[in-house]
Amino acid sequence: MVQAFVDKGYERGKTIVGAPYDWRFAPGQWKGSGYYDALKKLVEAAYRNGGNQRVTLIVHSMGAPNALYLLTKLVTQDWKDQYIERLISLSGAWRGAVKSVQAFISGVNEDIIIEKPAWGRESQRSYPSTAFLLPYPSNDTWTKDRVLVSVSTPAGSEKNYTAWDYETLFKDMNYTRGYDMFSEVKDFSGPMIPPNVTVYCFYGTGMDTVSYLKYDSSFPNSQPSITKGDGDGTVNINSLMSCGLWQGRQDHEVHLKSFNNVEHVDMVRQQKVIDEVVAIVTGD
User: Fold this and answer.
1) ∠ CA(206), CA(208), CA(210), 5° rounding?
2) I need a surface site. Which of 4, 136, 158, 241 has the fewest CB within 10 A?
3) Residues 170-204: pLDDT tens digits?
């Protein structure tokens, strides 16, 4: 994608720049490290380097709630009006994914066949980003009747958990630190406050995506039976489309577009997506 902009005359390090972050962390750690101060300076420099043309933020995956935190909590509307032309999100994990619930409970091994399937759980539980990407309990996305996890009890009954039941879930996992982590990060972007900039929200559909986890009585030390639903293979469709909640709630337009059978990471590599992003930014 960067090369596509270079081919249009953009200059690396001047008018097209990157703002990488440590994906293990969440906005609290990024802010404490000075990341957002540096990001604001980078945007302002790109604005000047482009002849005082406003900047397009292009974000992918967790970069979407990351950018939302910046735009709703750390800068003023005057700053946005001066420096930001639009926000383009690709595969935005706006309100989390069920895959993060699985990571906390039993670990996600990315379909690698290994001797100990829960090998990644300890490290995945230590990442604030895993909590940041838990499905955010809400009346319009992850509702009180949307069961994410079911557990068979030794007595033969079944216990269900929704995104509204994290405190109980983590207690039953004997990992109450997980709920503390979620409480620390949930409101950074979860409420989906409108950013009040023009938004283009691109996302993939038609890919099998972890939607529901069924554990036996060995929970949380067993691997789940997984039911899959629509999404981009990583993020669930209702989370990907959460940006649509801003339509009619902010002064600027919000555009959504789906790309069938485009996987989460492939959104930044698919030529049809790249062509559309470049056309939006350049006006071609």
Assistant:
1) 135
2) 158
3) 999 999 999 999 999 999 999 999 999 999 999 99
**Contact criterion met (CB below 8 Å) for 73 and 168:** no
Reduced to 3 states (helix: H, G, I; strand: E, B; else coil), residue 275 is: helix
Q: Which of 60, 61, 89, 138 is catalytic?
A: 61
- Tell me how many degrees the CA angle 185-177-171 measures, rounded to the nearest 5: 115
Active site residue 255: no
As a whole number of angstroms, the distance between CA 203 and CA 257 comes to 7
- Selected catalytic residue, list 89, 172, 232, 242: 232
Answer yes or no: 232 catalytic: yes
Residue type (1 letter), 19 = A
> How high is the pLDDT of residue 159?
97
Q: Residue 52: how many CB atoms within 10 A of its CB? A: 9
In the chain, what percentage of residues exceed pLDDT 90? Answer: 93
Alpha-helical (H) ranges within the chain are 2-6, 27-32, 35-49, 63-69, 77-83, 98-105, 121-126, 128-132, 166-172, 177-185, 237-240, 271-282
Partnered with residue 251 across adjacent β-strands are none
pLDDT digits (tens, 9 = 90+) for 217-238: 999 999 999 999 999 999 999 9
What are phi and psi for residue 16, nearest 5 degrees? -135, 120
| Distance (Å, whole) CA 143 – CA 164 | 8
Arithmetic mean of pLDDT, 275-281: 98
DSSP-derived 3-state class of residue 89 = strand
DSSP state of 45: H
| Nearest partner of 86 among 48, 43, 37, judged by Cα | 43
Of 91, 165, 189, 264, the catalytic one is 264
Residue pair 89/200 in contact (Cβ under 8 Å)? The answer is yes
Annotated catalytic residue 264: yes
Average pLDDT for the chain:
95
